[in-house]
Specification:
This protein is an alpha/beta fold and about 650 residues long. Helices cover about 35% and strands about 15% of the residues.
Length: about 650
């Protein structure tokens, strides 16, 4: 029988004939021959996926320096469940025993990670656009890494000296080496550090933050009795790999599922299969439906009177707002009958526990922020917050990175973040406004852009405008694994790494404190440096010989872990599945701490918005981009379980 031991890197190791026997007993594996069984390396190494931002725990089997198998890591709750009690129950039964536990799951993207790692189309060497060639023509010269860093640094220094550091705009995702990239922007002096989140779920974050004080509450689908989901398809849009499992477990436990979505998604189909409902709403009208549901709940006195009286503010004003938002008012707007609206409102208010949740669907409209606030208000009306089977406020802890301070005062941002136009802009910035500045020169004209794992051309609506914006820049640098549409427009392309080749510390999105380690399971395939090393080298080439650029990246992570959690990188590597788990899920935290709002209560009416001259109540306003007589149809899109934006579009397994 195979023996499993926890190694120094947080991996499970099966060696020699024991490893061969274990492999032979797993479905779909071929038996290792006698020569292979004597391999010098046959290791299972714990890490975390990055085929999307879900960070599912996984093990990679590395055989003589090559990844030959990926499977989920049951020591990491992402891929298992999002509530500690469920995880603990699985663990106590042995189902979360580790490498071969049956609890954990991965989505198709995660299982196809090997294909991305060994994709023959990966960028292998630094590329420089040949002088005189047209951007996008694909005429490149390979150059040494040191030459690329030196030339990029010289160009950035010249731009800073001639017209200021703010003329450099930095774009990145939010799951890879963010603190060291922020450190670079701070010491360089540019305020223009933007991340992709503003293209994603910031309207949802805003809605929940301005009502219950936390931007990303997590739905306890497994332990609920009623699910009302707006514009989200958890059975395919698997933000986290445990989502399908916990939702289906909830249905198996007798929960009712109501899905609000223009499209009959996989989740909507499952709702119908289990006797629930699919509400085929007109796009962009989710807020109107939420207000009509509130009208019924308040009008028929079905709301949680105790919670509303003790833990909310603005109820009287909100009740006055929705008094005219009857189901009959909402029916022609939403396309959902008044009878159905009344039925759903009564079911939602009288079934406990219940979850009201939404994701990016309602938020991808011009009224999305207020629509999200109206949806969040329903959770407050029925008092279904931070209890088992409701929207739970996660208790998160993580590393505390020391980031060098930016010069004060910083120049104004190019994307108008926190201006009168965007008083509540997310910290990730506003991509479309940065693009406008590249075209119009207002508030000023950027001269250079650096993109780290960002496909700006493909991801921001209106490709022609994105290309126009980039062609106005003097310098474009792209750090990516492939020649994406944006990389093809660059002056320099630096070869990126896959998640199997680099480090990251990852506080996990579950309801209890968890930090997992993404670590290299194999060295970078082409000898290229990971993204964080490129950022360090660029900073040093510009003369910024300060922390964290003058220490190793492992030291930077070690310091952050010790500052935030009291243990170091070696300790995290040694933990089962390279995952630290703190105390369990805590409920009803607001009873002792209040909500993280100005009033310390759930806010139907936002004093912060009132202070900015905005409507403090989440009223419904029709979108400006609705159908017209000339163009009578909506165009909508959705997430697929097989793909993450353009990141996976070159993965042959997923495309097939």
């Amino acid at each position: 029988m195979a023996t499993q031991t926890i190694g120094r890197r947080g991996f499970l190791k099966l060696s020699g004939m024991a490893g061969a026997a274990a492999g032979a007993g797993m479905a779909g594996w071929r038996r290792l021959g006698p020569v292979e069984a004597q391999a010098t390396q046959d290791e299972w190494i714990a890490t975390c996926c990055n085929m999307c931002g879900g960070t599912t725990g996984m093990f990679a089997r590395v055989y003589n320096g090559r990844v030959i198998k990926i499977q989920p890591n049951s020591f990491n709750p992402v891929g298992v469940c999002n509530i500690s009690t469920d995880y603990d129950n699985l663990k106590s039964t042995g189902d979360a025993a580790g490498l071969h536990g049956e609890a954990a799951r991965m989505c198709p993207k995660g299982n196809a990670g090997i294909m991305t790692q060994y994709d023959p189309d990966r960028v292998k060497k630094p590329l420089k656009r040949r002088p005189g060639s047209v951007r996008g023509a694909g005429v490149w010269d390979e150059i040494p890494y040191e030459t690329a860093v030196t030339e990029i640094a010289a160009a950035l220094a010249a731009i800073k000296a001639a017209s200021g550091p703010e003329k450099v705009v930095w774009f990145t995702e939010d799951n890879t080496a963010v603190p060291i990239q922020q450190s670079f922007c701070n010491v360089f002096g540019t305020p223009n550090f933007l991340q992709h989140s503003n293209l994603c779920d910031v309207a949802r974050k805003f809605g929940f933050e301005k009502t219950l004080g936390f931007h990303r509450p997590l739905a306890d689908f497994k332990n609920t009795k009623y699910m009302l989901i707006f514009g989200w398809n958890p059975l395919s849009a698997t933000k986290w790999a445990h989502l399908p499992r916990i939702l289906l477990d909830g249905l198996a436990n007798g929960a009712k599922l109501v899905v609000v979505d223009p499209r009959c998604t996989e989740t909507a189909h499952k709702a119908l299969q289990y006797g629930g409902r699919w509400l085929a709403i007109k796009p962009g009208t989710d807020g109107a439906l939420a207000l009509a549901l509130a009208n019924v709940i308040i009008g028929e006195k079905l709301y949680d009177a105790t919670f509303v009286a003790n833990w909310t503010v603005g109820f009287t004003e909100f009740a006055a707002l929705v008094a005219t938002k009857t189901p009959e008012w909402a029916a022609p707007i939403t396309g959902i009958s008044a009878t159905t609206i009344r039925t759903v409102a009564r079911e939602l208010a009288t079934t406990k526990p219940a979850v009201v949740d939404a994701w990016s669907g309602p938020g991808q409209h011009m009224n999305g922020a207020e629509g999200s606030r109206a949806i969040a208000a329903l959770a407050g009306l029925i008092g279904q917050v931070d209890k088992p089977g409701t929207l739970v406020l996660p208790g998160r802890k993580g590393p505390a990175f020391t980031v060098p301070a930016a010069p004060s005062p910083l120049p104004a941002r190019v994307d108008r973040q926190n201006s009168t136009q965007y008083p509540f802009a997310h910290s990730s910035g506003v991509y479309v406004e940065a693009r406008e500045a590249m075209i119009t020169g207002h508030p000023y004209m950027p001269r250079a852009a650096i993109f780290v794992m960002q496909n700006f051309v493909f991801s921001v609506p209106n490709t022609a405008k994105s290309l126009q914006a980039l062609n106005n820049l003097e310098l474009i640098v792209s750090v990516d694994t492939h020649l994406s549409e944006t990389a093809q427009m660059a002056d320099y392309v630096m070869p990126g790494t896959t998640y199997l080749e680099r480090y990251e510390l990852l506080p996990q999105w579950v309801t209890f404190p968890v930090v997992a380690l993404r670590q290299p399971v194999v060295p970078p395939l082409f000898g290229q440096k990971p993204e964080y090393e490129f950022v360090k080298d660029l900073a040093l080439a510009l003369g910024h010989n300060v922390y964290p650029f003058n220490v190793s990246y492992e030291t930077f992570m070690d310091d952050a872990l010790k500052a935030g959690l009291g243990f170091g990188l070696a300790d995290l590597k040694a933990k089962p599945g390279a995952t630290w788990i703190g105390e369990g899920t805590k409920y009803n935290k607001y009873l002792t701490t209040g909500f993280a709002t100005p009033s310390k209560k759930f806010e139907f009416s936002s004093s912060q918005m009132k202070d900015k001259g905005l409507n403090p109540l989440p009223d419904y306003v029709p979108t400006e981009d609705g159908p017209t007589s000339a163009y009578p149809l909506h165009i909508i899109n959705w997430k697929e379980a097989l793909h993450t934006h353009s990141r996976t579009m070159n993965n042959r397994w997923l495309m097939e």
